[in-house]
C-alpha cells in the first residue's frame, strides 16, 4: 500500500528560535515514527530567517539521534551549491551513525536568491553540471576501488540511496534515465505534476538501485478537528507564500481569522496557484483528499507538508493525517477482499 512521509520546514516562528525549531522537528519525527510515517525529510534553504535547515546534514543528525526506525533524509540537498565529495562525506557520515536509515534527495535549484548563490561561492551555471554531479556523488557512495585515489571518507560502501527531486519535467527525465526514485514538489509547483509522472514512468530505465519506477508526490495537508479550524491554521502558510511574493521572507506567523484582509487579489491568485493541490479540513476531508490524490497519481508515497504555526496543533494535524490514511488503507483492503 502507498506510504506517508513528512517534509518538515524546521520553521522558526515569532515564538520559537532556531533551537526551538530543531527540537520541534526532532519531537515531530519521534511522534511520526510511532504514527507509522515512513520518512522524515528536511530541505536545504539559505538566507531564510524562518527556515532553520540550512546546515541540512547537521539538522538531520539531531533528528536521527532522537528516533530509532524512521528513515531520515534530505528533501533535498541543492547539489549545485556543493562539491559532490562534500555531500558524500556528510551523508556517508550520517549513514555510518544511523545505518540503513538515511536518504539523500537531490535538487538542481539553488534553494535561495542570486545574491546568496554568490555568497555560497557557486554560480548559476553550476546547475548545468547536475547530471554529472549526481553520477559523481553516486560513485563516492559505492565501494572504493583498489586504485581509487580520491575517496569520500567514510562514504565509500554506504550506498546511500539517491532520489531526484523536481518541480518540472527536467527532473523526471533525469530520474528515469538514471533509474532513481522521483519526488515531485507539487506542494508548491503543482502545474506539471501529471505530465512529469507520465514522463518518468514511460522512460524509466532500471538500475542497480531501483528495478521499477517509484514515485513520491509532495502535498500540503492541514488537518484539524473541524474544517473551519483547519482553514484558519492554513493561513500561516498562505501568509508565508504572500510574503515571499512581497520579497519579505520573515518568521512564521500565527494564523489569522480572515486571510482576505492580508493579501491582495493578485497575491491570492499567485498563492492559490502554488497551493492548488492542498488538502485542508477535518479527518474525513483529509481521508477523501488523500484517496483522490493516490487514485489520480498512482503515487507510491506521499510526502506531506503540514505547515502549522503552533507545534501542538501541528502534531495533532499529523496525527489526524495518519489516522485518515489508515482509514483509507483499511477501506482499500476491504474493497480488495470483497
Your description of this structure?
One of its GO terms (cellular component) is cytosol. This is Luciferase-like monooxygenase. To bacterial alkanal monooxygenase alpha and beta chains. It holds the Pfam family Bac_luciferase. 45% of the residues lie in helices and 14% in strands. By secondary structure, it is of the alpha/beta class. The chain has a single domain (3-337), classed as TIM Barrel, CATH 3.20.20. An eight-stranded parallel barrel has the order 1-2-3-4-5-6-7-9, surrounded by eight helices. Helix 3 (84-97) links the parallel strand 3 and strand 4 (102-107). It is globular.
Please name the defining characteristics of this protein.
single chain, about 350 residues, alpha/beta, TIM Barrel, 8-stranded parallel beta barrel, 9 strands, Bact_Lucif_Oxidored
Question: Which descriptor suits the 3D outline?
Answer: globular
CATH homologous superfamily (4th level) name: Luciferase-like domain
Mean pLDDT: 95
Structural class: alpha/beta
Tally the structural domains.
1
* CATH level-1 class: Alpha Beta
Largest sheet: 8 strands, parallel, barrel
CATH topology: TIM Barrel
Beta strand count: 9
InterPro entries: Bact_Lucif_Oxidored, CmoO-like, Luciferase-like_dom, Luciferase-like_sf
Protein name: Luciferase-like monooxygenase
Domain Luciferase-like: 6-300
Organism: Bradyrhizobium lablabi
